[in-house]
Amino acid sequence: MDRHSSIREGHGQTWAKAILLGEHSVVYGHPAVAVPLQDLRMRATASPTSGPSTLSSLDYSGPLDQAGSRFASVARAFEVAREFSGGLVQAFDITTVSDFPHERGLGSSAAAAGAIIRAVLDACGREASSDELFALTQMAEQIAHGKPSGLDAAATCSPCPIRFQGGQMRPLSQRIDNAFLVIADSGIHGSTREAVSGLRRRYENDPENIGPRINHLGTLTQIAIMALDQADAPTLGAVMNEAHTLLTELSLSLPILDDLADAARRAGALGAKLTGGGLGGCVIALVAGQPATRRVRAALERAGATATWSYRMRLSQVGE
């Protein structure tokens, strides 16, 4: 009997993430805090087929091996999942559907890779531990981002906020009640690879100027972790604002991102900052209550955001 005769249509799901604090400084050994956005989902389907494997994702539909460099990490995710499952000879029609845009710092490449990996494993009836799923997603992320920290691979499947440092993830308590994150899309594609490599060059050329700013971002992240645990929304907002200033000084922001952050603060946000790699992508704003959330979203749209979303931060309590 063919050991792959039981292969069926498989499904996988992940979601978006927003980095509250610590983007970029996490690459230099500091912690980062990411919040999963479970309402913004990435879904993948893997349907067995007799022909060559195909991909339907974003604006592409065709043979997977002809999808080009833009989908290199997706192709790698498919390869590692098929190898892990033992189904190397089985072809699939792969489809992804996303609630959120790509190349905006919301973790789309890791979410797509993770969803495809889960769909292929599901199709092959292959179980995988959370550590194995993380390792497989990281293999795909290396194609997308060179030397990824692992934050996106962890956060796009986490049920609660996470602290990430040195390749290690642990869940965080989030005790701020009635807190919302408003996410505003600048409409500009960001490139994490470009942003990370550019900062690395600037750090190597001018460590005395760049190093202290990176270290300060790490300190702000530690404060944010305490603020989440102590239900201190004003402090969390303040460190978000300060982090945005530092990221701007590190040449990782753009005028539109600065304008969106300013607009959110003027409309009543407790804090606002770019999220993710920068050089485009999204701004996130911390807001208390639904009425203020509506005001902030409207202000961001007037300030030039091409789309906005709001996400109510879920309470979580993690034992020590």
What does this structure look like?
With 320 residues, the protein is an alpha+beta fold. It has two domains: 10-171, Ribosomal Protein S5, domain 2; 179-312, 2-Layer Sandwich (Alpha-Beta Plaits), CATH 3.30.70. The chain is 41% helix and 25% strand. It contains nine helices and eleven strands. The chain has helices at 72-85, 108-124, 130-145, 151-155, 192-205, 207-229, 233-249, 255-266, 290-302, and strands at 10-21, 32-49, 54-57, 60-63, 91-98, 162-165, 168-171, 179-185, 271-275, 282-288, 307-312. Strands 1, 2, 3, 4, 5, 6 and 7 form a seven-stranded mixed beta sheet that branches. It has a four-stranded antiparallel beta sheet with strand order 9-10-8-11. Strand 9 (271-275) and strand 10 (282-288) form a beta hairpin. Helix 1 packs antiparallel against helix 3, helix 5 crosses helix 6 and helix 6 runs antiparallel to helix 7 (233-249). It is globular, with a radius of gyration of 20 Å.
Summarize the structure.
By secondary structure, the protein is of the alpha+beta class. Helices cover 41% and strands 25% of the residues. The N and C termini lie far apart (50 Å).
- Examine the coordinates and then state which fold CATH places here, giving the name of the CATH topology of the largest domain: Ribosomal Protein S5, domain 2
Radius of gyration: 20 Å
| Shape assignment | globular
- Count of individual domains: 2
Overall average residue pLDDT: 92
Total beta strands: 11
- What is the H-and-E element order? EEEEHEHHHEEEHHHHEEHE
Helical stretch tally? 9
Classified by CATH, the class of the largest domain is Alpha Beta
How helix-rich are the residues, as a percent range?
Answer: 40-55%
Give the biggest beta sheet: 7 strands, mixed
Distance between the termini: 50 Å
Helical/strand content category: alpha+beta
Strand content: 15-25%
Can you name the CATH architecture of the largest domain? 2-Layer Sandwich
Low-confidence stretches: none
